[in-house]
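thread: overnight batch results

M.L. [08:02]
morning all. the overnight job finished for the chain we discussed friday. pasting input first so we're all looking at the same thing
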Amino acid sequence: MENRRRKGESGKAWQILQQRIDKRQTTENDTISGIDKSPEAREVRAGMVKTMRKLKQAAEEARHDDNSELGAELRKMDELNERINEDR
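M.L. [08:03]
and the structure it wrote out:
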């Protein structure tokens, strides 16, 4: 993954961040957690938020699709979580 970032294959923001990571000026965790406030880190975090929203939407759609294997697994997880919460 780091090599892809160095080559710019993950976008210019990640390329710059990876250079800074290599120089020990920041870390991947600082980038993701919000400690790194650079414009590149903000851009990467915004992209992650957008991706997470899409994944959440896809999971919700799958959860309500009776023909979806993912949906079936998510419903099983929901049932297990309900049981766990009932036992508390």
